[in-house]
């Protein structure tokens, strides 16, 4: 179950993502663009050199309700040059609102000691499930499905953290696009080599960080932004072959790669003094910048790890709305009613799940009614279901996780405290690997 699934190479949400009604977007269109224009005019532009201002004088900021490049939502931020030579930085209101809601959710979850992985899991669900699988044939909006309270905007501490995450991320994104404009980078396509693409992204990132350093603007939201983006962005291991991945990179407006993340992390670590110098507690601010750099560097390894990337697909497919509700750190995302644990094959267990590539910790919850058993399992990559029957002292079961399925067999120790078994794919009950678990209830 760790690395044996065959991935679907389509990305269902790419052409269908619609999280908000037009009325809500029109409301935010009257607020957010004005805030960003003021941020540019009052903070960013004065920090530019005279030459930089001259080279960016003709660049306009554009805020369509929805992204003209449909597949770019919910990360619709790019530079476009019209046939008349007019250059625009495009930021869709829908993408700005989606990131704002996810940043708000992250702030509330963090400050209330809840697990903060559900916003990323939500994005994986959007990417790898289809809208028609949800009530009304549309994807659920972030705040409601993540269980964020309706009065969250009235909580000052949450709003303060949200402001740091959201604003610093948007400053970086806006400066990155202005960096493309400053250096007059061409768009992407078959005529632009991957080497040139990587160079352009690095140059735009370098400009963004340089101006943020001039402003002593702590990049505290960047790790959140890139963590979310990493759960949305197609990765090499999401494609059947290298040629398919290369074709995607040639068309992508901002391909997210491990190399790019490592360069960003190194630049942040090198200039942590500059970003922290305006903070009242310099040492603490410097430590926070270093932590952001470390987290972005960790994400680079995340992008290169095939098991993790394939796991994101499995997570997205297996995630349902009930799994996204707030839960405390370490709490199992399983809604169940386990009967009194006293017989074999019932109760809550924890252990390890193994296949040829290694092992992962697993949590298992089983209910038993006579000889019939049903339950749930998770090892951090979605929520699987298990159903079976006890025959001759052994539990013969079938399992499903998203679109994947198989069979397996469990044996229980005489006291029912331990389970040992095998699992397999499709019709096999043992070609996948083994697992063992110990009662934890």
Automatic annotation (TrEMBL):
<keyword id="KW-0482">Metalloprotease</keyword>
<dbReference type="InterPro" id="IPR001915">
    <property type="entry name" value="Peptidase_M48"/>
</dbReference>
<feature type="domain" description="Peptidase M48">
    <location>
        <begin position="193"/>
        <end position="266"/>
    </location>
</feature>
<keyword id="KW-0645">Protease</keyword>
<dbReference type="GO" id="GO:0008237">
    <property type="term" value="F:metallopeptidase activity"/>
</dbReference>
<protein>
    <submittedName>
        <fullName>M48 family metalloprotease</fullName>
        <ecNumber>3.4.24.-</ecNumber>
    </submittedName>
</protein>
<feature type="region of interest" description="Disordered">
    <location>
        <begin position="422"/>
        <end position="441"/>
    </location>
</feature>
<keyword id="KW-0479">Metal-binding</keyword>
<keyword id="KW-0862">Zinc</keyword>
<dbReference type="Pfam" id="PF01435">
    <property type="entry name" value="Peptidase_M48"/>
</dbReference>
<keyword id="KW-0378">Hydrolase</keyword>
<dbReference type="InterPro" id="IPR051156">
    <property type="entry name" value="Mito/Outer_Membr_Metalloprot"/>
</dbReference>
């Amino acid at each position: 179950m760790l690395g044996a699934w065959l991935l679907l190479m389509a990305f269902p949400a790419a052409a269908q993502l619609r999280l908000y009604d037009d009325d809500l977007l029109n409301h935010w269109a009257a607020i957010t663009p004005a805030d960003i224009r003021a941020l540019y005019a009052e903070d960013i532009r004065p920090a530019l050199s005279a030459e930089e201002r001259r080279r960016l004088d003709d660049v306009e900021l554009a805020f369509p309700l929805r992204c003209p490049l449909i597949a770019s939502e919910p990360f619709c931020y790019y530079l476009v040059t019209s046939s008349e030579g007019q250059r625009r930085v495009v930021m869709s209101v829908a993408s700005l609102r989606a990131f704002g809601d996810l940043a708000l959710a992250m702030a509330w979850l963090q400050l209330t000691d809840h697990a903060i992985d559900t916003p990323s899991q939500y994005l994986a669900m959007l990417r790898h499930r289809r809208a028609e699988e949800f009530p009304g044939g549309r994807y659920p909006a972030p705040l409601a499905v993540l269980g964020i309270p309706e009065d969250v905007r009235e909580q000052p501490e949450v709003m303060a953290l949200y402001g740091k995450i959201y604003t610093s991320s948007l400053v970086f994104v806006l400066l990155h696009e202005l960096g493309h404009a400053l250096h007059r980078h061409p768009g992407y396509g078959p005529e632009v080599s991957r080497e040139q693409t990587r160079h352009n992204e690095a140059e735009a990132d370098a400009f963004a960080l340089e101006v943020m350093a001039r402003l002593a603007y702590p990049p505290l939201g960047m790790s959140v932004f890139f963590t979310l983006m990493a759960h949305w962005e197609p990765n090499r291991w999401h494609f059947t072959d290298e040629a398919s991945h290369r074709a995607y990179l040639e068309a992508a407006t901002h391909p997210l790669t491990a190399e790019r993340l490592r360069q960003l992390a190194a630049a942040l670590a090198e200039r942590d003094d500059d970003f922290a110098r305006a903070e009242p507690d310099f040492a603490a601010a410097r430590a926070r910048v270093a932590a952001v750099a470390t987290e972005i560097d960790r994400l680079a390894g995340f992008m290169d790890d095939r098991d993790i990337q394939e796991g994101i697909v499995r997570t997205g497919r297996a995630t349902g709305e009930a799994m996204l509700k707030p839960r405390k750190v370490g709490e199992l995302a399983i809604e169940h009613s386990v009967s009194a644990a006293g017989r074999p094959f019932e109760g809550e267990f924890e252990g390890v799940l193994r296949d040829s590539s290694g092992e992962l910790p697993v949590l298992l919850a089983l209910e038993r009614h006579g000889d019939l058993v049903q339950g749930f399992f998770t090892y951090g990559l979605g929520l699987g279901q298990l159903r079976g029957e006890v025959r001759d002292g052994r539990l013969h079961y079938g399992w499903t996780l998203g679109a994947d399925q198989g069979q397996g067999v469990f044996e229980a120790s005489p006291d029912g405290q331990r389970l040992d078994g095998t699992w397999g794919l499709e019709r096999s009950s043992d070609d996948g690997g083994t697992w063992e678990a110990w009662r934890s209830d």
